[in-house]
């Protein structure tokens, strides 16, 4: 089935600012130069804390991981802004705030009065607000009515900018409004006769699309255009634009009358066109 993404939306960090507790679609901890070492320590300390809080779990042969597909990093960090400075205040398990690490133990030389000043952070912090107007099941890619962007320089909030996001055009074949019609349109336009034999194979084709303000394709984005070929227990990724599957799906993409036009941070959001091709689809749609 064609989808807008092929991965999983992630749980954000937490930001306490001006008395509000907000979702933070950024992970400033991962900007540290010693991040890989720190991450290993965090995961180990969370497991120790989990054992202390829930010892009964560890009497079983199998223990569930503290991470999940919605929280691959394995933790949720809590931050606070005080006097335009960004501080780390807590690190929790993904889905259970009863489980947390002792940040003083991990960041001893940086710890002061329960705070770790994020001196390493030179980045943009994204804060979503309002309703979700476009759900994209990939990382932090969903689009919300409003976004606040904090520009951080060496842990200091240097600039704040607010964006109002909007949907200006919905495609006549929008997958969100009518997935069955979209699917039928796409697969009925595949030229199955030119494709290689799909027996015992599953082909996933991803095409990155940059639409213009009229919903027409402005550009095919190379880095998001590839094939994953699954065969038996193996898989391989192909990014050559001359690949027959890529060429065919690009041709189909250009037949779609128009694409959703969604503005996020004053720019049109790129679209991901994903098609799965296999023997079942071929038998169903081939004429």
Overall description:
The chain is an alpha+beta fold and 287 residues long. The protein has two domains: 13-164, no CATH class; 168-285, no CATH class. It is built from five helices and 17 strands. The strands form four sheets. Strands 1, 2, 3, 4, 5, 6 and 7 form a seven-stranded mixed beta sheet that branches. It has a four-stranded antiparallel beta sheet with strand order 14-13-12-17. It has a three-stranded antiparallel beta sheet with strand order 8-9-10, with no helix packed on it. It is globular and about 70 Å long.
How much helical structure, as a percent, in the residues? 10-25%
Number of domains: 2
Q: What is the tally of beta strands?
A: 17
- Main beta sheet: strand number and arrangement? 7 strands, mixed
Oligomer: single chain
Number of H/I helices: 5
C-alpha geometry: globular
Mean pLDDT: 91
Rg from Cα: 23 Å
Distance between the termini: 19 Å
**What structural class do you assign from the helix and strand content?**
alpha+beta
* Poorly predicted parts: 1-6
What is the ordering of alpha helices and beta strands?
EEHEEEHEEEEEEHEEEHEEEH
Strand content: 35-45%
Question: Could you list some keywords that capture this structure?
Answer:
287 residues; alpha+beta; 2 domains; seven-stranded mixed beta sheet; 5 helices; disordered N terminus
């Amino acid at each position: 089935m064609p989808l807008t993404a092929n991965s999983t939306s992630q749980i954000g960090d937490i930001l306490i600012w001006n008395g509000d507790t907000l979702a933070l679609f950024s992970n400033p901890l991962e900007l540290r130069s010693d991040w890989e070492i720190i991450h290993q320590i965090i995961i180990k300390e969370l497991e120790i804390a989990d054992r202390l809080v829930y010892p009964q779990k560890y009497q079983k042969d199998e223990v569930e991981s503290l991470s999940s597909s919605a929280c691959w990093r394995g933790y949720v960090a809590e931050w606070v802004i005080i006097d335009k400075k960004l501080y780390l205040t807590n690190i929790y398990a993904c889905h259970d705030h009863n489980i947390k690490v002792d940040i003083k133990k991990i960041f001893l030389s940086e710890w002061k009065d329960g705070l770790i000043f994020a001196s390493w952070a030179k980045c943009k912090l994204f804060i979503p607000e309002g309703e979700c107007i476009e759900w994209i099941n990939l990382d932090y890619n969903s689009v919300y009515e409003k976004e606040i962007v904090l520009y951080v320089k060496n842990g200091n909030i240097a600039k704040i900018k607010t964006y109002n996001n909007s949907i200006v055009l919905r495609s006549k074949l929008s997958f969100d409004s009518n997935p069955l019609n979209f699917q039928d349109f796409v697969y009925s336009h595949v030229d199955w006769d030119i494709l290689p034999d799909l027996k015992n194979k599953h082909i996933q084709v991803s095409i990155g699309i940059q639409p213009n303000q009229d919903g027409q394709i402005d550009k095919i984005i190379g880095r998001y255009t590839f094939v994953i070929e699954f065969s038996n227990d193996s898989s391989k990724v192909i990014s050559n634009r001359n690949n027959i599957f890529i060429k065919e799906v690009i041709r189909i993409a250009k037949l779609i009358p128009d694409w959703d036009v969604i503005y996020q941070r004053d720019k049109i959001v790129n679209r991901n066109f994903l098609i799965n091709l296999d023997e079942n689809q071929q038998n169903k749609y081939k004429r």
